[in-house]
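Re-run with default settings, no changes from the original entry. Doing this only to confirm the output is reproducible before filing.
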Amino acid sequence: MMKVLLRRIVPVLASALLAACSSTPSPQPSRPGLGPPPVVRPAPVSPTAPPPPAGLTQAVASIVRNFRGRVGLAILRSDAAWTIANQGSEFFPQQSVSKLWVALTVLDAVDRGKISLDDPVTVTEKDRTVFNQPIMQYVQSGKSFETTVGDLIRFQMILSDNSANDILLRKAGGPEAVRRFLIDNRLGSIRFGPGEAQLQAGTAGLIWQADMAKGRAFQEARAKLTLETRQAAFDRYVADPVDGASPVAIARALMRLQKGNLLSQRSTEYLLARMSESKTGPERLKGGVPPGWRFAHKTGTGQDLNGTTAGYNDVALITAPDGTSYAVVVLIGQTSASIPERKAFMQSISSAVAAFHKPVVRSTANR
């Protein structure tokens, strides 16, 4: 399997490894407006923790160095106390990655008996929001659509449905309930914004109005703004995202989720199953994961302006056949790279994780 994997990531990973292992620093591409290329450094959890594989650290550093964009990255292995990070403590736009915190808050309420997955929910025209909302195809000619909390989580996590997410957010108690969950569980540097509609309106330089949900009203209102207004709002969001999170905080939260430290076993298994069924971003991190590995993730994608995207993300739990898991977080805060370049970049990261994976060999001397 390893030979097949290495063939998949050549030449992208091969060139990265050559650059990383060279005794002469490789030329660094210019990054107009983004400052100097970042440096990836291993970040052990404790001074006595074993370091991450040098080859993986070097490969990731080279891959990041040769990408055009501001990148936040964290790789955390389940059975080793180390993290590989690039700008790991900085805030990056989450976009739809934040749907994960809504799902966690709802499932926490399920665990506490406040909500049931079988609770009925009526979806109407008033639940329309912006951009991706496939659930609204079931609301025909003013008629309502009857569903459940559990099915809303499926729409939210599998299809990244904005309307389903905002309905669940209201069921959970609104943004303050999500923020309380983050604080109570000590999840660290993770912000939660005002909800999908208000977040997207603010990023565009608009104030959300309910009639913006009709047809293409939002896009039309956005198009009427001056470029200066839109650029100023875009820049403010990227510089200090209201939904910002640090890569390391997300990686640790993912690992705590998998280990059952955030939800009951039943709710943990339910959420991870929905994340593994996700249909979004199949050519992001998932595209670099070899056969036989398990994969569960959540993507996020921001708005474009003048060829630049504010937030192009994927956060995942990647599990090797031997059961070892990695939390892999890639947050591209701002980039003008093409979509194929972004996908290739993410695939190179997940491919490198798999290529350098080795099971931990435990001593049997004292058994």
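The first strand starts at residue 41 and ends at 42. The longest helix spans residues 339-355.
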